């Protein structure tokens, strides 16, 4: 079987196609993605993920918040770091910010870190909708990975293509890739564990 894609790549393929527009809040000229919705969305997919913050006070009295977000899937781990100064509504750094200012910035920084994994990234890049909604389909590498999984699990690629209303799995929309890959991979890993346990039983 060919080498599997990395967790970082799979998370991006999973999160970047999600349309977050309904969960964006406007405050003046600024837009904020609801951190509660963003975190719930991550937990639905990667419930073992966690984050930590570090607040760094600078010489001028302003504060830079740093967020380290770690996503787990099985034994694989993917980590990204993002930072954000504590700012007012004009995007100016606040000198000697209070606890509420820092708390709000922490959650905004978490959302920014989530964007580095793909969730809502298109907003930060100035787009109105995710790239996947502009007609993007899965890549050649993703097509090959799915066919490897079909072969390993005995799944029927035609049936999967019909389920997603495409004539061939290569036409699968990019945002649907993880929905196909994840159950196939879980099925394969379960079969491999069962086979390994059977071998142990035979040896005993």
CATH topology of the largest domain: Enolase-like, domain 1
Task: Please report the total strand number as a whole number.
Answer: 5
Strand order of the largest sheet: 3-4-5
CATH architectural designation of the largest domain: 2-Layer Sandwich
State which percent range the strand residues make up: 15-25%
What would the principal axes of the Cα set say about the shape?
A: elongated
| Unreliably modeled segments | none
Main beta sheet strand tally, sense and closure: 3 strands, antiparallel
Q: Pairing-aware structural class of the strands and helices?
A: alpha+beta
Mean pLDDT: 86
The first-to-last residue Cα distance is 29 Å
Q: Rg, please? A: 21 Å
Total DSSP helices: 7
What letter string, H or E per element, gives the SSE order? HEEHEEEHHHHH
CATH class of the largest domain: Alpha Beta
As a percent range, the share of helical residues equals 40-55%
Task: Tell me the domain tally.
Answer: 2
3D structure, described in words:
The two termini are 29 Å apart. The mean pLDDT is 86. 44% of the residues lie in helices and 18% in strands. The chain is built from seven helices and five strands. The radius of gyration is 21 Å and the shape is elongated. The protein has helices at residues 7-15, 35-45, 99-116, 121-124, 140-153, 157-163, 177-203, and strands at 24-27, 30-33, 50-57, 63-73, 76-85. The chain has 204 residues and is an alpha+beta fold. The chain has two domains: 7-132, Enolase-like, domain 1 (2-Layer Sandwich), CATH 3.30.390; 137-203, no CATH class.
